[in-house]
Amino acid sequence: MFVRPNIAGMQPYIPGEQPSGSGFVKLNTNENPYPPSPRVVRALLAEAWGALNLYPDPMADAVRDRLAKRFGLKRENFLIGNGGDDILTIVTRCLVDEHDRVACPVPTYILYRTMADLQGGEIIEVPFGEDFSLPEGLFGNEARVTFLANPNSPSGTAASVSEVKRLAESLDGVLVVDEAYADFAEENCMDLVGTLANLCVLRSFSKSFSLAGLRIGYLAGPADFVAECLKAKDSYNVNRLSIVAAATALDDYDYMLSNVEQIRQTRRFLADSLDALGFKTLPSQANFVWTRAPAPGAKAIYEDLKGRKILVRFWDSPLMNEFLRISVGKRDEIDLLLGVLGKITEAAGDD
Ligand SMILES: Cc1ncc(COP(=O)(O)O)c(C=O)c1O
């Protein structure tokens, strides 16, 4: 073996399916069903005819400055990445040495475990309780870094800002509040940035800004921590097109907000309709719902839907195998899904 033992021994992260054919109803990877702002697309076209022969700004300051203005922080509080996942890589690279601990509540975003494995760290997984409030076992843990997806995936549930603050205050290590879905939620932790030395917030342009295909995310945190993280990133980690797209998307914030409002309305409709069919749906603050499936069970329903080219997410593991995660698509996609689910559950009831 040429590779390090921890790489050879680890399970690869398996992303949700990205089908190559056409005609799929894709409700499996929490993409935004609406296109990005037309202003973003126009800016991208102009940039494509511009200076692609030149390297991009290594710091992506056009994005940092807009974020600083929007959130009342400084440019130095932001690190821009090639998607939120790049931020997770950079942060873990900075914080976690071999045998260091990485903590998170579970079930959650499985990539946190992958990040710990890559560094040869030890993952400490603390199960959420029934109601998905923050588990007491997470408070005061001794990990170098604690990852908290808030809103959480796959559950869609969120801890309050005061609970997150209490968690950060209980830790000696760093708390990364992963707010990839925060624009769909009632509150978020951005106002805590800079008030606690060990708290950072991660955000993504993939979900609320409809830019999953371009890969842009960022970290907001104390300037001294961000300065250290900057040393650990690839020098040109965000490309020219992504920088232009993110900057323009921030200039057209209202476009994002109106899509988010539409998705929240469809989310309510989806959750109510699922419950009327016998599913039990957790209260969601994200652009997806997690729902406990009635007969014939989550796995059978997932497979039946897949056979009809409707993709939702299912994990065949102990904490998750009774649930389906369904992204909030356009209303016609959700109507189609619900029609099929009605038939599947009715047929199971007849058995
Ligand atoms: C909880 C969570 N964090 C971070 C990400 C990463 O987002 P991206 O790399 O697309 O910005 C995702 C993507 O699905 C996610 O679910």
Describe the structure.
The protein has 351 residues and is α/β, with parallel strands linked by helices. It has two domains: 5-34 and 254-350, Aspartate Aminotransferase, domain 1 (Alpha-Beta Complex); 38-253, Aspartate Aminotransferase, domain 2, CATH 3.40.640.10. It has helices spanning 5-9, 38-48, 61-71, 84-95, 111-119, 161-170, 223-231, 240-251, 253-276, 298-307, 331-350, and strands at residues 25-26, 78-81, 101-106, 122-127, 145-149, 174-178, 199-204, 217-220, 280-281, 288-292, 310-311, 323-327. 44% of the residues are buried. Residues 30, 83-85, 109, 149, 153, 178, 180, 204, 206, 212, 217 line the site of pyridoxal-5'-phosphate (PLP).
What's this, in brief?
The chain has 351 residues and is an alpha/beta fold.
> What's the overall geometry?
globular
Provide the low-confidence segments as ranges. Answer: none
According to DSSP, the number of beta strands is 12
* CATH fold name of the largest domain: Aspartate Aminotransferase, domain 2
Strand content: 5-15%
Sequence of secondary-structure elements: HEHHEHEHEEHEEEHHHEEHEEH
What summary fits the major beta sheet? 7 strands, mixed
Bound ions, cofactors and other small molecules, one mention each: pyridoxal-5'-phosphate
Report the CATH C-level class of the largest domain.
Alpha Beta
Helicity range of the residues? 25-40%
Oligomeric assembly? single chain
Question: Could you give the order of strands across the largest sheet?
Answer: 2-8-7-6-5-3-4
Q: Any idea what the CATH superfamily of the largest domain is called?
A: Type I PLP-dependent aspartate aminotransferase-like (Major domain)
Rg on CA atoms, Å: 20 Å
Distance between the termini: 53 Å
- Mean pLDDT metric: 96
